[in-house]
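queue> holo job accepted (fe (ii) ion)
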Amino acid sequence: MSAVAVGLSHSPLIGKNDPAPDVIAAVDTAVDEARAFIRSFDPELVVLYAPDHYNGFFYKEMPPFCLATEANAVGDFGSAAGPLSVDTEAARAIALGVLDRGIDLTISARMTVDHGFVQPLEILFGGIDQVPVVPVFVNGVATPLGPVSRIRALGTAIGEAAAALDRRVLFLGSGGLSHDPPVPVLEGAPPRVADALIEGHPPTPEQRARGEQRVVQAGRDYAAGSTAMIPINPTWDNLVLDTLASGRPEDVDDWSVEWMGAEGGGSAHEVRTWIAAFASLAATGKYQMTSRFYRAIPEWIAGFAVATAVGER
Ligand SMILES: O=C(O)/C=C/c1cccc(O)c1O
Ligand SMILES: [Fe+2]
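queue> job finished
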């Protein structure tokens, strides 16, 4: 088996509320590098770790993580809708391997996913049906959140289980880094919002459009400096990247949930997807980070990063 890892921030505001052209050009160059890295590796399987934003997972049942044997995208923020090309056989084999390693994995036979899964597939592969994928939801938004050490353990178990498949595997993490978008919070929510977060009634097209416009406007306000949202934290973001670059993802095990939120904002826990991806790669042997790009981009409400890593052979 050979393995690589890629981390890529996502934002539904890309293309809707863009920063200055030189920032876009720098992001494009970094993403082009990641695409070329992936093309030359030519993965036979992508294990995709991503969060959800109350489109697929609700408080009626909110697992800390969940592996899909089939998945459908809702098409939020103009992202693609429809089935992902899930490799069901590989997904089942990895799930069994993870359970055998003592991790209490939740399985979904029909996971609903949103831009968190779709955007990296569109950006890096040109669509949601271009490459065999095993989708793994990692909760990065819905409190209470468990210890990050468990996400590292999940990533390790998935890496070990994927190694047994004897294929070229890309571990891909989607999200982060520091950011504090206006994602609703159950605690203290008015009854109508709380009910939606618990039950997950599908929004009407008008309701979805209104919600998405609210996020776009939040990005505009954030970039203009007129907002109560927690600022992007480049120092913390670079600490996250330094830790993953060190080759010792286990160093995250003593990071507390509270500290991560205070440093990186309400959605900073999306970095759990990166931690899982790099822990998976580490489980296959020593690795090296081969490229790393970072920029604070308030227009996208994102400490935006792209990084690639290869296992040492
Ligand atoms: O409102 C949502 O569904 C998500 C918004 C968002 C904004 C910026 C960065 C992200 O990672 C997001 O998910
Ligand atoms: Fe997100």
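queue> Residues 79 and 261 are 27 Å apart (CA to CA).
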